[in-house]
Design goal:
alpha/beta; Oxidized Rhodanese, domain 1
């Protein structure tokens, strides 16, 4: 059932993404700002904080933000996060491709008591669009970013787009 709901949600997002011309417009349409945003610029002062990647494993394995912890989306398990991060007062930033999936994961974190959770505005796409580095699984800088899908990939302008793992 959960898989069907996620599949329908993803299909809906993909169909309607073609009508969106910018990350700002897409976030305005799909997010309700239930999780406070943190901008890419504000992230530069976000040292020694916890960064969670809410994309799928194949996306994370192409590239991710430095020291990001993969938590996934379809297979997200709050219990696993609670094991890894028992301090619910810690500052956490969640990100995905542009910030839609990470808002959903951020909502779950906030509801479970992680009161200082934020959503990275524009996600990894905006991060790389502004020239900040991403890293492959070996820890090396890379220009590759998983673009999630052709319709969403239009928001990724300053990286080498990867559509498969």
């Amino acid at each position: 059932m959960q898989y069907s709901i996620n599949l329908l949600f993803t299909f809906f997002l993909l169909l309607s993404a073609c009508a969106q011309s910018s990350i700002d417009q897409a976030l305005e349409r799909y997010n309700n700002e239930s999780v406070p945003y943190i901008t890419v610029a504000e992230m530069q002062n976000f040292q020694d904080k916890i960064i969670l990647d809410a994309r799928e494993w194949e996306e994370y394995n192409v590239s991710h933000l430095k020291n990001a912890i993969w938590v996934g989306y379809d297979d997200f398990k709050l219990s696993e996060v609670e094991k890894k991060l028992p301090d619910k007062s810690a500052e956490i930033v969640v990100y995905c491709s542009i910030g839609v999936r990470s808002e959903n994961i951020g909502e779950e974190l906030l509801e479970s008591g992680y009161s200082r959770t934020k959503n990275l505005y524009g996600g990894i796409f905006e991060w790389t669009n502004q020239g900040y580095p991403v890293y492959n699984p070996k820890g090396d800088k890379t220009k590759k970013v998983h673009a999630y899908g052709k319709l969403w990939g239009k928001y990724l302008t300053k990286a080498e787009k990867v559509y498969k793992d």
